[in-house]
Design brief:
Elements: H1 13-24, H2 28-40, E1 47-52, H3 56-67, E2 71-76, H4 84-92, E3 96-98, H5 105-116, E4 122-125, H6 129-136, E5 147-150, H7 153-164, E6 172-174, H8 179-202, E7 210-214, H9 218-229, E8 233-237, H10 241-249, E9 253-255, H11 257-263, E10 266-269, H12 279-282, E11 289-293, H13 303-309, E12 310-317, E13 320-325, E14 330-334, H14 340-343, H15 350-370, E15 378-380, H16 383-396, H17 406-413
Parallel strand pairs: 1-2, 1-4, 2-3, 4-5, 5-6, 6-15, 7-8, 7-10, 8-9, 10-11, 11-14
Antiparallel strand pairs: 12-13, 13-14
Helix pairs in contact: 1-3, 1-4, 2-3, 2-15, 3-15, 8-9, 8-15, 15-16
Catalytic activity: S-inosyl-L-homocysteine + H2O = L-homocysteine + inosine
Protein name: S-inosyl-L-homocysteine hydrolase
Pathway: Amino-acid biosynthesis; S-adenosyl-L-methionine biosynthesis
């Protein structure tokens, strides 16, 4: 029988299985949901395509969906985030997985096409590429799709634009916007894993360096806080006045990109937008400035312009490219400008992804059970799911919530008790 997967080396499976098991031990919320799914089979016969980062944490989400009775096809949402041993382990278990670290763009979309052959009822995205492919090239699959989930800010922005234009053809839950995802995954996960990726690639000392964080959403807050905690002088670049004010009140320097380009030693973009560091900024940077991205796609950095400015581009060490400019300055780009926390490290810790993927699994169940009454729009994760994930996480940490007394409940719900 022909193999129904595309991975680098199926011989890496055991290594992947060991690492998946290690992550599982740090994902108690997802484990509880998996046990519930195994018992009740809420996804029995449902076909799911997942275009996500192929990591040990994602593997545990896939196993949870399988436990619920789903048929799953998995493809990578980023060519440099795939962990080849994890892909091999899932393939060995019979999952239709199409992911090879470093695959080119043509292969990337070929793998999405292969995964779509499952004829999905539910789509899971990290960047909306499956949704975009179905809507633009494979509308024949739309009739079978109940709905989808999107778990990153960039993808949600895309989908809200589609919904506003009446172009979205099925309902999507913005898993990214759940508080137990956005606040924790983006702030604590991106904050820690971004610096892990940078240090893994460079081994530089952060203390005393000037670190420029471009964007002060939840990801930017996390990165800035962790860099400050390691002794860096942190500059924040923002376009929104309230976020810029918050960054200033949090103790960071706030500048526009032109001024920040002159003083930064390390630049980290976390905006989800295009060309936030451009030619005019590269022209102002110090010799040996380091540039990386932890937003989503590598389009945050105008690398084509940087390449034109360079007289030579060379790989000086793993995941570090040196752009030697015509005036002799050197600018270093990490992980080809792709997500530095995944291209140069392991991504978010399992404790963080535990909550993100718990929301994801419960949202898939919600779509299956409620798709007939959902409009073709982008929805927030239902509040009861978000709260349930938070409560399960607290229980796993041994933390108890305070309970209101009847007197306190009456006081908060009345207007005539006075003070």
């Amino acid at each position: 029988m022909a193999k129904d997967y595309a991975v680098k080396d199926i011989g890496l499976a055991q290594q992947g299985l060991d690492r998946i098991e290690w992550a599982r031990r740090h994902m108690p919320v997802l484990n509880l949901i998996k046990a519930e799914f195994e018992k009740n089979k809420p996804l029995k016969g449902v076909n799911v395509i997942a275009c996500l980062h192929v990591t040990v944490e994602t593997a545990n989400l896939i196993e949870t969906l399988l436990a619920g009775g789903a048929n799953v096809a998995l493809t990578a949402s980023n060519p440099l985030s795939t962990q080849d041993d994890v892909a091999a382990a899932l393939a060995k278990k019979g999952v239709k997985v199409y992911a090879i670290r470093g695959e080119d763009e043509k292969t990337y979309y070929k793998h999405i096409e292969a995964a779509l052959k499952i004829k999905p009822n539910v789509t899971l995205d990290d960047g909306a590429d499956v949704i975009a492919t179905v809507h633009s090239k494979h509308k024949e699959y739309l009739k079978d799709i109940y709905g989808g989930c999107e778990e990153t800010t960039t993808g949600v922005i895309r989908l809200r634009a589609m919904a506003a234009d009446k172009a979205l053809k099925y309902p999507v839950i913005a898993v990214n916007d759940a508080e137990t995802k956005m606040m924790f995954d983006n702030r604590y996960g991106t904050g820690q894993s971004t610096l892990h990726g940078i240090l893994n690639a460079t081994n530089i000392l952060l203390a005393g360096k000037t670190v420029v964080v471009v964007g002060y959403g939840w990801c930017g807050r996390g990165v800035a806080a962790r860099a400050k905690g390691m002794g860096a002088n942190v500059v924040v670049v923002e376009i929104q006045p309230r976020k810029a004010l918050e960054a200033a009140m949090d103790g960071f320097w706030v500048m526009d990109m032109t001024e920040a380009a002159k003083v930064g030693d390390l630049f980290i973009t976390v905006t989800g937008d295009i060309n936030v560091i451009r030619k005019e900024h590269f022209q102002l940077m110090k010799d040996q400035a380091i540039v990386c991205n932890s937003g989503h796609f590598n389009v945050e950095l105008d690398l084509p312009s940087l390449k034109k400015m360079a007289k030579k581009v060379s790989t000086v060490k793993t995941d570090v490219e040196e752009y030697l400019l015509k005036d002799g300055r050197r600018i270093y780009v990490l992980g080809e400008g792709r997500l530095v926390n995944l291209a140069c490290a392991f991504g978010h810790p399992p404790e963080v992804m535990d909550m993100s993927f718990a929301n994801q699994a419960l949202s898939v169940k919600y779509i299956v059970e409620n798709h007939k009454k959902l409009k073709k729009d982008v929805y927030k994760v239902p509040e009861d799911i978000d709260n349930r994930v938070a409560k399960l996480k607290l229980e796993s940490m041994g933390i108890k919530l305070e309970q209101l007394t009847k007197e306190q409940e009456n006081y908060l719900s009345s207007w005539n008790m006075g003070t």
